[in-house]
Amino acid sequence: MHTMAENTSGNVHGDMSEAQFLTIAEVASKMRVSKMTVYRLVHGGELPAVRVGRSFRVTEDDVNEYLRKSFYNAG
Fold first, then answer.
1. Nearest alpha-carbon partner for 11 in 57, 51, 66, 56
2. Are the C-beta atoms of 62 and 9 separated by less than 8 Å?
3. Are the C-beta atoms of residues 21 and 10 closer than 8 Å to each other?
4. Where are the alpha helices (DSSP H) in the chain?
5. Tens digit of pLDDT for each residue in 39-49?
6. Which residues pair with 52 in a beta bridge?
7. pLDDT digits (tens, 9 = 90+) for 43-67
8. Burial class (CB in 10 A: 0-12, 13-18, 19+), 39
9. What residues contact 68, with CB distance under 8 A and at least 6 apart?
10. Most exposed: 8, 17, 21, 31, by fewest CB within 10 Å?
11. Radius of gyration of the chain from its Cα atoms, rounded to whole angstroms
């Protein structure tokens, strides 16, 4: 039996009780993009999310990982 699950970003999450969940609006604010952009990332599978009823929640770790992987070095 496996007690840890791997999400699409490659992070291994064991005990999710310590995870900081953000709303789509909070993610959009943190990334300084529109909520529609965040919804597109979630629906496109680029940003992992948990569906809670009709809402989505994204872990702060997954947002940080997405930003880290998406960083573009222009120099």
1. 66
2. yes
3. no
4. 24-31, 35-43, 60-70
5. 999 999 999 99
6. 55
7. 999 999 999 999 999 999 999 999 9
8. middle
9. none
10. 17
11. 13
Tokens matching residue 42: 């979630």
Domain definitions of the chain by residue range: 18-70
Predicted confidence at residue 8, as pLDDT, reads 46
CATH number for the domain running over 18-70: 1.10.1660
Q: Using CB atoms within 10 A of its CB, is residue 58 exposed (0-12), middle (13-18) or buried (19+)?
A: buried
Q: What is the pLDDT of residues 21-33, one digit of tens each?
A: 999 999 999 999 9
Query: For the chain, how many residues are written?
Result: 75
pTM score, two decimals? 0.73
Helix (H, G, I), strand (E, B) or coil at 22: strand
**For tokens 């222009």, what's the residue?**
74
